[in-house]
């Protein structure tokens, strides 16, 4: 499909998809060889009825992490930071971990730390100090576990190396050089544009953004899809950034990509390797995929509703996507290995066996996950392959039971993050 045809399809079908999935507003851009087409539909807020347009800014959530990683790689290129140096080389007294391990989510400490340390330029410095008391889940480099806190630490490294606040580094070393004219570091900048508001349960969210202390991980950054594709094009054309797409750690079998690079999630597909990232904030979601073999990129932004099927249909129309996970009737879950209680700062999950030998998962959100709109759910777990099981309830991806607690039971329930088996709470 040519880029002009893709644009026609997008403008025709995006309004239908948004209405079908109760998405208040959406904006999408597609880049093929530097030629960009874009479309928008719906409203930025159901409270105001302001129309969503292609120059509206939406929050990109955790896609911010790739921009943060790019700033780090700029420091590496300048000789100011070394990837395999201990973090305490730059932040004296910080726990055992390397810069590379922070970039690829293998540092091993609890990663869902969203403590608000204020709005001042010292917020990242204060945030990093409080991480001294955060539990270490596994030894650095042992495995992958998605780590938001690690990216705030990277943001602080950037500040120390550059001698200026993180958001200024973002503007001076990415936005301005790349010509990203509709990118906002915070609400004060976003209000200068047409800014989307997140929606929870079909109503505008009570707050626009999360804490500034999590900005390098994705709590605030907003932009247009076109600006995000401008950033993605830099990764297709700047050879100095190619190393960010090299696999650093294999991912567990949970329906994500196949590996993680230095910031990028990597997808090894029959047609070749794609890279990208997803992002979620309070009621806003974003997806970015880049196919370097075809020189095609797509960015999709939404501000509420059932955004996953909308994103999936658009992605499948533009780039190759992984096959949907499916259960294997011949695979039998090992109830003794899997059953138990697993916990992190954002959820408590109980896995139990019923009288018929079926395995059930019941998850209760905690902390910030509650404020972000996550709800409790209970579902049967179906056999898939190996230690990977598939929730029967639609909308939930595979989970993996990894490690050993010393008694033949899984130590971790992995859903992207490694939740630890709670001691003394097994069933």
Automatic annotation (TrEMBL):
Q: Which residues form the Beta-lactamase-related domain?
A: 12-312
Query: Which residue stretches, if any, does this entry annotate as coiled coil?
Result: none
Cross-referenced InterPro entries, in alphabetical order? AmpC-like, Beta-lactam-related, Beta-lactam/transpept-like
> What is the protein named?
Beta-lactamase family protein
What organism does the record attribute this protein to? Answer: Actinomadura montaniterrae
């Amino acid at each position: 499909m040519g880029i002009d045809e893709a644009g026609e399809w997008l403008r025709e079908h995006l309004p239908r998809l948004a209405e079908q999935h109760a998405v208040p507003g959406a904006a999408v851009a597609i880049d093929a060889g530097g030629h960009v087409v874009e479309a928008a539909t719906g409203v930025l807020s159901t409270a105001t009825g302001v129309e969503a347009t292609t120059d509206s800014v939406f929050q990109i959530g955790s896609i911010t992490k790739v921009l943060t990683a790019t700033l780090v790689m700029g420091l590496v290129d300048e000789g100011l930071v070394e990837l395999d140096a201990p973090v305490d080389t730059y932040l004296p007294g910080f726990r055992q971990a390397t810069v590379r391990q922070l970039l690829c989510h293998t540092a091993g400490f609890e990663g869902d730390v969203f403590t608000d340390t204020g709005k001042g330029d010292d917020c990242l410095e204060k945030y990093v100090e409080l991480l001294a008391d955060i539990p270490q889940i596994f030894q650095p480099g042992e495995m992958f576990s998605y780590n938001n806190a690690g990216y705030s630490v990277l943001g602080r490294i950037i500040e120390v190396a550059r001698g200026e606040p993180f958001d200024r580094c973002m503007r001076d070393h990415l936005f301005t050089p790349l010509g990203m004219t509709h990118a906002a570091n915070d609400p004060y900048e976003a209000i200068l544009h047409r800014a989307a508001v997140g929606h929870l349960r079909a109503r505008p969210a009570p707050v626009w953004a999360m804490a500034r202390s999590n900005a390098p991980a994705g709590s605030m950054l907003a932009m247009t899809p076109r600006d995000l594709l401008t950033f993605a094009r830099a990764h297709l054309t700047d050879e100095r950034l190619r190393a960010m797409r090299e696999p650093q750690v294999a991912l567990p079998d949970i329906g994500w990509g196949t590996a993680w690079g230095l910031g990028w999630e990597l997808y090894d597909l029959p047609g070749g390797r794609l890279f990208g990232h997803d992002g979620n904030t309070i009621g806003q979601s974003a997806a970015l995929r880049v196919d370097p073999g075809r020189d095609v990129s797509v960015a999709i932004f939404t501000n509420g509703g059932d955004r996953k099927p909308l994103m999936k249909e658009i992605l499948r129309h533009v780039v190759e996507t992984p096959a949907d996970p499916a259960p294997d009737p011949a695979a039998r879950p090992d109830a003794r290995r899997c059953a138990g209680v697993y916990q992190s700062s954002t959820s408590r999950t109980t896995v139990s066996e019923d009288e018929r030998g079926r395995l059930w998962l019941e998850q209760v959100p905690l902390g910030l996950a509650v404020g972000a709109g996550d709800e409790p759910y209970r579902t049967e777990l179906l056999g898939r392959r190996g230690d990977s099981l598939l929730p029967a309830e639609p909308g939930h991806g595979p989970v993996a039971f990894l490690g050993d607690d010393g008694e033949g039971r899984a130590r971790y329930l992995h859903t992207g993050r490694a939740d630890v088996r709670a001691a003394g709470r097994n069933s």
